[in-house]
Amino acid sequence: MSDQTTPAAPAHDTTVLPIIAAVALCHMLNDLMQSVIPAIYPLLKGELALSFGQIGLVTFVFQGTASVLQPVVGLYTDRRPLPFSLVFGMGLTLSGLVVLAHAHSFPMLLVAVALVGCGSSVFHPDSSRIARLAAGRRPGFAQSFFQVGGNAGSALGPLLAAFIVVPFGQISVQWFALVALAGMAVLFGVGRWYGSEGRARMTAARNRPRGPGFPRPVVRRALLVLIALTFSKFVYMGAYSSYFTFYLIEHFGLSVAGAQISLFLFLAAVAFGTIIGGPIGDRIGRKRVIWVSILGVAPIALLIPHVGLAATVALSALAGLILASAFPAIVVFAQDLMPEKVGMVAGLFFGLAFGMGALGAAAIGMIADATSITYVFGLISVLPLIGGLAVFLPDVRR
Fold first, then answer.
1. From CA 289, how far away is CA 325, in angstroms rounded?
2. Phi and psi at residue 142, in whole multiples of 5°?
């Protein structure tokens, strides 16, 4: 009998599931609060007499604030980690919700959503980095777990809005501040771990021997392709998040509550799709996941504008499920290309996700004002065809 045993994995390569679960839970709480904003657009449109263009501007300010600040926050905290920055970010979201509950003018509404956007800009880069640090050798799994928390929150937001905000009015938004307080309590514990073991893992990762890496032209080309794919995904998804309820109400005569439940089904499917994207990428390669998840949804997207209500809800959920599996793979793929800047990369792509969704929502709102919301949903159906650019990505599997 041999006396040799399999060496244990280094401590820094182990997966710390409680920390991943904690940041995923807080991602759920964070995105739940954020998703209340587009979910109550029909209510705000009526109470503040907003046009579709103004709704697009609200989304632009909300998501654009996060888009601009996230890469900056990520780059800064790559160099100077701030263990309790997540608590501060959740506090900004809390403040934004309180202002939103009492916003009775369009400028105050913009201030409220800007505060929520600032909270998101602090939360996403650092929480994504913590998930990566706690992942060990399972970064795809950790990124999916982390992101599915956000998608679950995005799905629950419209559902809670339908049963809380719609019956009790805009003032009831302030009750969601209690969710922010719960998140701050959990993130305080995460910050303590990040300040001790998390920093040790960062140091170990920086000191680990690396291969030669990819040439800069390859990295630049791959990042441009990933940005194009992110544009395709999030403009398409942003149209659903902001306008799917209006489309169902206008095109099929559905009630506001029924439209919000349909939005919940779409976002729940997105959450499930996010679960599978990262782990599959760990096994078969992230390039294949990206290729299939974006280009593969194109036939479904092209069919949706031409079917009935039941088929629209079902096919939209299927499209969301397939398309959502791409983003965990995109983020980890980009981090593999630039392993020394995982926070900046996470901030860049989460920022792009918010920014492109914001610009897309603003443009879609203006087009809808000039044409119709039904026309817009026919227009966006071609966006998943951009997924064909994935053929130009290098293979980053080691």
1. 7
2. -65, -40
Helix, strand or coil for residue 14? Answer: coil
Query: Which portions of the chain are predicted below pLDDT 70?
Result: 1-13, 198-200, 202-213, 277-285, 340, 342-343, 354, 357-358, 396-398
Burial readout 145-172 (b: 16 or more C-beta within 10 A, e: otherwise): bbbbbbbbbbbbbbbbbbebbbeeebeb
pTM over cut 0.70: no
Nearest to 282, CA basis, from 170, 143, 376, 91 = 143
Asked whether 23 and 127 are in contact (CB, 8 A), the reply is: yes
Which residues, 6 or more positions from 374, have their beta carbon under 8 angstroms from its beta carbon? 247, 250, 251, 305
Q: Which residues of 386-397 are buried (b: 16+ CB within 10 A; e: fewer)?
A: bbebbeebbebe
Q: Which one, of 331, 78, 337, 392, lies nearest residue 216 by Cα?
A: 337
Cα Rg, the chain, nearest whole Å: 21
By C-alpha distance, which of 389, 13, 40, 382 is closest to 225? 389
